[in-house]
Each structure stands twice: as structure tokens, then as C-alpha cells.
Amino acid sequence: MKSMLVVAHGSRRAESNDEVRELARLLGSQVDASFESVSCAFLELAEPSIPDGLRAAIAGGASEVVVMPYFLSAGRHVVTDIPGEVDIVRAEYPGITITLAPYLGAAPELASLILRHVQSG
Length: 121
Known about the structure:
- The radius of gyration is 14 Å and the shape is globular.
- The termini are far apart.
- It is of the alpha/beta class.
- It has one domain: Rossmann fold.
- The relative contact order is 0.18.
- The chain has 4 helices and 4 strands, in the order E-H-E-H-E-H-E-H.
């Protein structure tokens, strides 16, 4: 089973974390057969943590987890912190494939999405 884990920074503001949870729910309702489940995790300030999110996906039957950093730029969190958290669980579960997708800001479609969003508002 293949799972997606959307990773966001996390916030002290509960509503911000709930927006990420809602995004994961929406993605889960829209993905095709390529992902059987979508969930979210947070780097800090909210639960579940990245390792706990990965462990939950694995406990739910995932043999492959794709981690999608929900970040707009390749700062320290994207380049160092998230891969470090992922490596913790990779070491615990060497038989599970855990891959890091490119962070959201690297998506070539992002510029046109922003333009459409601004023009429609």
C-alpha cells in the first residue's frame, strides 16, 4: 500500500494546523489509485510529528510512503530538518520505502496557479 504524508511546519494557532489536516483530507478524497491514504504531520508545534506520522502510515499498512513537504522555499526545514526526521523512521523500518517528494514551491505549475488564484479573487 502506498501512502502520502503531507508535512507542514506546524503552528501554535490550532486553526492553521486544522487547515493542513483539511488539505490532507481533501487530497485523500481526490487521489487516484496511486495513493491509498493521505495524512499529515508537522515539523514542530503540532501533532503528529513527522516520525509519528510515518509510523502511523506504516502501522496502517503502508509499504511505501511519499513525504510531501508543504513548504514554498528550500530553507533549512526542507533541506535539513525534514530529511533528518524522515531518516529516523527509515532506520527503524529499513524494509519500508520512504521517499521525499519535491517541496511544494518547486512545482512548475505554482506560478500559473498563483496567477489564476489572484485573478479570480
